[in-house]
Amino acid sequence: MSYSGFVPVPPGSEPLAGPPPLPPIPDQWAPQPGFEPVAPDEGTVMITPVAAPVEPEYDPELDGATVVVDRTPPTRWFLMLAEGIEVELPAADVVVGRNPTGSPEQPGVRVPDTGKTISKTHARLRRVDENWFVTDLNSTNGVLFFAPDGQEALLPAGVETLIQGDFILGTVRASLESRVGEPAVRAWAAQ
């Protein structure tokens, strides 16, 4: 007797090997401890429990808040001399004079004075927010302010005073001016 698609095994020979074994069940599909399969009722959908997701390893690069970048253009400050000379103030706390002694925290800023009425280390200029203060550092010719009535008033040495308008170092009239600098990030032209 023969069936279509079926080949009989000749007598005395071994039957052909069966299909290969199935691969092992991945762990995520393996029954969880304590799980007892129950025969479903007709029409019931069987849901196989899945292992809990594995937490990724900790990466310090992904941790923490995003750093906010200040893109506002920097404000630059200048000491404006009556002769039209501008002297940039590189920090919020500087020592000014003809040849001042400064430090990394308080840089020295040279102020040109052909008449040599400004002392080598004449005064300290310090900015707090948008306000500047001046302190005479025992200079020879002092720091003068203009009183509301227009008269000159000599600043006592060592006294920090708010600058409001023009002031005089030795005989050099000066004022302070701020300017907004170049933006920190420039737009790139399309190629």
Q: Topology of this structure?
A:
Layout: E1 75-81, E2 86-89, E3 93-97, E4 108-110, E5 123-128, E6 131-136, E7 143-146, E8 152-154, E9 161-162, E10 167-169, E11 172-180
Parallel strand pairs: 3-4
Antiparallel strand pairs: 1-2, 1-11, 3-5, 5-6, 6-9, 7-8, 7-10, 10-11
Q: For the terminal residues, how far apart are their CA atoms?
A: 81 Å
Query: So what's the overall shape?
Result: rod-shaped
Q: Give the C-level CATH assignment of the domain at 77-180.
A: Mainly Beta
Q: Please tally the β strands and state the result.
A: 11
Based on the coordinates given, report the CATH architecture of the domain at 77-180: Sandwich
Region (Disordered): 1-28
InterPro entries: FHA_dom (IPR000253), SMAD_FHA_dom_sf (IPR008984)
Pfam families: FHA (PF00498)
Keywords: Phosphoprotein
